[in-house]
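Narrative progress, year one. The postdoctoral researcher (J.K.) led the effort to move from monomer predictions toward full complexes, under supervision of the PI. The following entry was the first complex the group processed end to end, covering 924 residues in total.
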Amino acid sequence: MLEARAFEPEYLRKLDRLVLGIKRARTVRTGQRALGRVQGLGIEPENFKEYAPGDDLRFLDWNAFARLDELMLRTYRADRQVEVTALVDASASMGLPAHDDKLGLALAIGASLAYIGMADNDAVRIGAFAMHRGSMKLEATPFHRRRESYLNFKPFVTSVRAGGETRLGNAVDELLLQRRPAGTVVVISDFLVSEGDVEDALKRLIAARHDVKVIHVMGEQESSGSYPPGLYRIRDAETGEVRETILGPAAVGALRHKVERIAARIREICTTHAINYAQAFGAGNLESFMERELPLLGIVR
Amino acid sequence: MGLLNRENFIYGLSLALLVLIYLRSRSRPTIEVSSLMLFDEAPAPVASVRNVRLDPLFWLEVATLGALTFAIAGLYVMRPPAPGQGRSHALVFDLGAGMSAHDGTGTRIDLARQQATEIIDQAPAGDEFSVIAYALEAQVRHPQTANRADLRSALAELVPMAVPARTAALRAALIRAHGASEIDLFADRPPAPAILADAGSAARINFHLVGSGDSNLAIVSLDPGIPGSTRGRAVIRNFSTRPHLAELAIDLDGSGQYHQTMMLAPREQVLVSFGPLKTGGLLHARILNADAIDADNSRYAYAPSEVAASVLVLSPDAAVRDDLARVLLAVNANFQIETADPAKYVAPSGPDAKPLELAVMHDCYVPAVKVASTLLIYPPDGTKNGIGVSVDGTVARADIRGDATGESRALNSLALGDTRVVAIPEWMDLIATATAPGHPSIPIAGIGRAAGGAAGVLAFDVRDHLLLAPDHLDALVLTVDLMKQLTAPRDIVVVPTGADVSVAATGSARVTQPDGSVRTVTADKWGRVRIRPMQAGRYTVESGAATTQVLANYYDASESDLAAKPQAEAIAPAERRAATSNQQSAKQVQPLTFILIALALLALAIESAMLIGHAGRWGMRHV
């Protein structure tokens, strides 16, 4: 399946030159006590400033004091470590149409982003969510930072199977309950749910100060509407609802129009909330998507 | 409107099968999609909830199967007959002895005849009638005809017989009337509703109850006793619900032996003793006063001669010889019985040798014995004796199944011991048969008269005191019956009415019946004529210089009992049915079978034409 492609050395070599385009945390000026806030205890010097009462004396630059006879504090760039979570939709809709391998594409993209994130030693994990029998099932790997441990993602990525309902809001709730520091969350889904649910979930992530990125995956067949013509009974993979329809030229146009409308609406929601949005339509476009589309959209640089 | 064969309506399940076929062949494939949301704008079929494509071909196939189902189930309508098309009637008459009962001015058959004549006279000109009668058997007296004169003539020829009307005969009569649209049944008592229901006829059955009186006396039995020894007995029965006067006269060969008038209480049965008779001869008992049925007012019996007759009993078993001698003495105390072991028996010869009346041979056959009648009991295996009875083995057990004439009392199932598998000659009459392992039917009793004399055969062994065992009474009855018949005088035969009688004759015989009519009967190849007396009384068979008297007795408790009321539940349905039939008698059954089949064929033709049209339009050889 396509997710295995994300662990092939040849493919990974192409990702080596990419960097995750994430918003780094703001520089925290050291020496100023602020209870409850994480001090920017980086190792990269940023600037000097005159000592002010209350500053942390540990950051006094004694050499400068010897030369200039002034109390100077050395400031550092805050630690660049950001927690990156690739949140993959593993609902039943991601498994259909079967030969489109939407889930494989989503997992491959999630793993690729994790690999890219590891280039900066960011803490990266991959999670998959779906609603099973009324309860949200959010499974995620531990955080890994070094590329040497990238292959630790492989058992999880290759074991994810599509099933259950898409409940993005519940998945976000589950994620936020883990009370992790604000980081970057990349949501990868087909977003075949109500627009309100999508917008609500994304807004809650943003409210939790996460840097949110959205990758919209769709299969080649369902995005083009290329079903064989005829009379069919169609069954929703997640709800089991059945409907009768006529598939033909008219249906192809209607399907394409519907997909375009859904994509436009998701894009509009993302634009409204300053979220990076990218489309990955068709499993055959993984490499070009990673190398060309994502840099253009600023998700990677 | 209705169905002649409702059970065939099960073929209507073919319609359900058709729908299943359509569901199977024309249901739409189901595909699973990621979300129905994508298909919100896709066009939906017009008939979104139907799985069966109800096109004209479907409806034509439904019409075909429906029409064929109704045709098989026998759909019919009731409609008045078309002008010029007559209805068919069947006039069914009970000719049992009860129909000869006098009611007022005439007999019951006269009343039935009068009612039938009125029906014929009131029917439209095109209507056809058949005349069917039943008593012991059913008989079509006149086939369907619209000729009124022929019908009246056929009705006039209906004469009640001195036999009971059998239920099986009524069933047979209704079966023979099956083709009629209306059946008029004339009887003196209502038939059981089950019989009418079992008739299975679509015709309406109108039941006509004729007769109402119950004043009847009957001679139930007549026993002459043993001349010079025991008293004779006669049993008189009053079937009426009122007291009845009975004047009884008993004659022996024309000389009066008993004459008494007595008053019988309602439903009373009286035993009258007379004698003992001084000599043997033909005994005739009569009820002289008038009552409803004449046939049961006269009864004959033959009193055996007091002259000592010689009987020879041969058996290798001494106990059997003793048993048979006892039975013979019970049949006729005047018999002089000689018993012997066949291995030691030497037939007397010369002028001093007495003529033998009867020889009873058990498990042996001695051809040297010159005798008038022979009774073979358990004839030896593997031999073919001079009588013509061949033996083809022995079975260890046999069950008496029933009798051949229907008049013997040996009717109940009875397990016998060793029994020979015999084949009786054609001139013998089969009295009783039995079943045995590997033998569905073997004869066990037979009797006949040929030129060489009378002969009887009993196939079962009578060792171990079989004839004296209380559990084997039927075997004793069979034995006594054969002994009586074999020792009876040749010129006098007393039989019940309805029984077949064989009388020795040469060439042809002249038979004079009780009503004085005469007919000529030709003897068969064994030199006998067979008659079946259906009237009570004296039949005279004259052949050459020989004259034989056949005396027929009639008595049947159920037929003679005119006071027996039918059960309420039995009469009510019959009357209801009659009432219903009267309302609808103006209509007749019109089956729609041919119309339905024509509709089915038409639907098939239209479907074929449509399929050919489709094939031509699509450029295919077939669809």
